[in-house]
Specification:
mainly alpha
Length: about 140
């Protein structure tokens, strides 16, 4: 494990602990060559989001998704970025794309239901909640 790997792991740790300021100070110590990989770019987007830099975070994520449209974590962070920017429709679109790739991710389905509720799309939100709870199959069989 290199010094760069350790720094990246520490940045992730501090973000996960809810200490983005410390994560940023560690991130800023990364040499420029180490900042181009997709994993580090995801960390950069997360940092930017915690700092309220939604446009910058969106640019990083859109660049990552241009390179790899199936990057579920980028789609998930993009959805959070769009919600922070009060763009629930864009967040819903990112979450739907992520669910096409990973339909097993129940946390994404819950986020989608919440984004739909923010848009007052209550019927669609209810359908997502039912999928999440398994009620759609139970109610469908009861009729």
């Amino acid at each position: 494990m290199t010094d760069v790997d350790v720094l990246v792991a520490l940045v992730r740790l501090e973000l996960d602990r809810g200490k983005p300021g410390l994560g940023r100070s560690l991130f800023d110590r990364l040499p420029s060559f180490a900042r181009s990989g997709p994993d580090v770019r995801l960390i950069e987007a997360r940092l930017l989001l915690t700092e309220g830099e939604t446009r910058a975070a969106r640019r990083v994520l859109e660049d990552l998704l241009e390179q790899d449209p199936a990057q579920v974590e980028a789609l998930e962070i993009l959805a959070a970025t769009e919600l922070a920017a009060r763009r629930p429709r864009a967040a819903s679109a990112a979450l739907r794309e992520a669910l096409l790739i990973r339909p097993d991710r129940q946390d994404l389905r819950e986020q989608l239901a919440r984004a739909l509720m923010d848009q007052r799309k209550y019927g669609e939100a209810e359908a997502e909640w039912r999928r999440l709870s398994g009620l759609e199959n139970k109610i469908g069989r009861a009729h």
